[in-house]
Structures are given as C-alpha cells and as structure tokens.
Structure prediction request, 120 residues.
Amino acid sequence: MTIRETLQNGKNGLLYGNRLVLPFKARFLTVVIENEIITDFSHASKHVALVEEDNYTSIYFFKYQSLRNTLAKYEGIKLLVVEKEDDIFDLSKHKKLMVYRTETHTATIEETDQDILFIE
Prediction:
C-alpha cells in the first residue's frame, strides 16, 4: 500500500511497545518524537530501526519502552516521507504526516497542512 492509498482509505497504524507499524512503505527523511529529531535511518542508528516487510513498515524506537505511554493523547509522531516511486529531490513530493495514539493499539495517520511548522 502507498502513503496516498493509506490516507485516502483512512488506514491506521499500530503501536506495540516501542514499535510503530505503518501500513505503507516509504522513504523516510525525518521522524520527530517528543523533542527528538531523527534523520539517521542507517543500520548503525542508535535511535531507530526501520524494518520493511512485504506490505508494511515497522519503526522501532530504541529509547522508548512503550510508545503508547510516551505519547500524550494530542501529541503525535511527525513523519517526513516520500512515496517509494517518487523523486526524493522533488520537494513537492514530500509528505508531512502526523501519527496519533488512540485508546487502543491503533494509531491514526493524518497528512498535515503543508504550511505547518515542520522540521525538514
């Protein structure tokens, strides 16, 4: 599934422990959680591990034991991503997403206003 399809169909992610499961694959440019700005997604990263499966992507946050307990109800995880097939150097293709926890293990995924203050 693409980011576009995820947003159009209102698909949710999942939060389990320190893992955020997203129903799409993408190129990740920036992840912001609490006051931490993460841009290193290499295998040597000390902050996160990206694991791409056939139909989804998992992000493991090493610093946190429970994302559900870490995130306040209205505080989300910011993602700056690009569709796999899009040109990463075309800034108009960059998507700014917010992921919010819910009362269950699901996480809502929303595209933010492109004018919103967001770390790029």
About this structure: Residues 3-111 form one domain. The radius of gyration is 13 Å.
